[in-house]
């Protein structure tokens, strides 16, 4: 160790030890998150740093709600002015819901214009494979890749004024004009169609006809269905709102309605 004749000079070269953050996420060790006054990680900070948040401890409710809002963001980050749902934020929440014993059911609320096909299918597959009861509710819109997410739940609802746009899969960016490109598009579209028909009552022939309809949209091909039309074609199970969706989820999960108990008392 080098000795300095001047003690004050020596102190200038002493580097203090790096402060260890009070909270370190178990999944992403080394990333520090600020805590609130109750020694709990700040939810906003968790989302900003890790793309996830701790599930709140259920207080009189064993239902967890996840919203799919705006555009489903995939492997490419969308511009700042776009309202997006990042699939890497939703996936850890779905895993946590599945692993949390206190949570008995999941409510998925959609108002989305669609987005990345593979990211949307990933979310739909996870919701469809959950062992706990799931119910989806389409509010405003459940367009494009939002359709597989909506039908992935055990039971689906759509608001009377909500719409769903069904159209073929598209590619953005450079497309090589060879037959293989169209074969790839066809295979990807088959994945979407197979998932939708597996998790809903709509027939494959009817779904393909709606996708390739050229007489409804001005600048595109496809079909827009509103509320009861989505139910009539077998895409959605029932028309309804928030109260209907919660009642159905409680029924599937065997959960008593606390509001009903208070009314009875």
Summary keywords:
alpha/beta; 2 domains; globular; 20% strand; 2-enoyl-CoA Hydratase, Chain A, domain 1; 265 residues; six-stranded parallel beta sheet; two-stranded antiparallel sheet; 10 helices
Describe this entry's structure for a reader.
The protein has helices at residues 7-12, 43-50, 87-99, 117-128, 146-151, 179-198, 204-211, 228-232, 242-253, 258-264, and strands spanning 23-24, 32-33, 63-73, 84-86, 105-115, 134-142, 155-158, 163-166, 223-226, 238-239. Helix 3 runs parallel beside helix 4 (117-128). It folds into 2 domains: 21-54, no CATH class; 63-264, 2-enoyl-CoA Hydratase, Chain A, domain 1, CATH 3.90.226. A 6-stranded parallel sheet has the order 4-3-5-6-7-10, sandwiched between helices. The chain is built from 10 helices and 10 strands. It is globular. Strand 6 (134-142), helix 5 and strand 7 form a beta-alpha-beta unit. The longest helix is centred in the last third of the chain and has 20 residues, at 179-198. With 265 residues, the protein is of the alpha/beta class.
